[in-house]
Amino acid sequence: MKILIINGANLNLLGRRQPEIYGHESFEDLLEALRARYPEHTIDHFQSNIEGELVDALQRAEGIYDGVVLNAGGYTHTSVVLRDAIAAISLPVVEVHISSILAREEFRHQSMIAPVACGTIMGFGMESYRLAVEHLVNNE
After folding, report:
1. Looking at the annotation, which residues are catalytic?
2. Is residue 76 a contact partner of residue 104, using CB atoms and an 8 Å limit?
3. Which of 56, 99, 112, 128 has a beta carbon 3.0–4.6 Å from 83's, enabling a disulfide?
4. 54: domain range?
5. CA 12, 14, 20, 23: dihedral to nearest 10 degrees?
6. CA–CA separation, 138 and 25 (whole Å)
7. What is the model's pLDDT at position 17?
8. d(Cα 60, Cα 98) in Å, to the nearest integer?
9. Domain harbouring 57, CATH code
10. Domain count, the chain
11. Is the pLDDT of residue 24 over 80?
């Protein structure tokens, strides 16, 4: 199985940005651990702070990957275009959040992505990514 993890705005700062919310682990460390845990699967990663590049990555994934793990960051709450891009492709997309968006500021409670994702995993720290990969692997 080929899985693409897409991270949105500011997630390039994982391990340094607000560690009290997002932890101290870098995404590179997490990606290495995921690849070691699932050696029979290909796990690629794309990150951008630019909304349109995230849309392009979703569209390019079709026909190459079997599933997508998406942490859209702040775009979760605002991006109709990401929502439309997910709805336009046939790949399963698992929405991921490191923190529980429901336990944070009220403006973070609404996800534009959740209605078109196959599921949402939140609040388990970086483990949220592993749970999303596990779902895709077990449901291929």
Report:
1. 22, 97
2. no
3. 112
4. 2-138
5. 160
6. 26
7. 66
8. 25
9. 3.40.50.9100
10. 1
11. no
Report the C-alpha gap between 43 and 6 in whole angstroms: 11
Q: Is 123 exposed, middle or buried (0-12, 13-18, 19+ CB in 10 A)?
A: middle
94 within 8 A of 70, measured Cβ to Cβ: yes
The residue to which tokens 């997630």 are assigned: 11
- Whole-number Å distance between alpha carbons of 25 and 113: 25
Tens-place pLDDT, residues 4-22: 999 998 788 776 766 666 6
Q: Tell me the pTM.
A: 0.91
Structure tokens at 79: 């991006």
35 neighbors 43 (Cβ within 8 angstroms)? yes
Rounded CA separation 98/128 (Å):
6
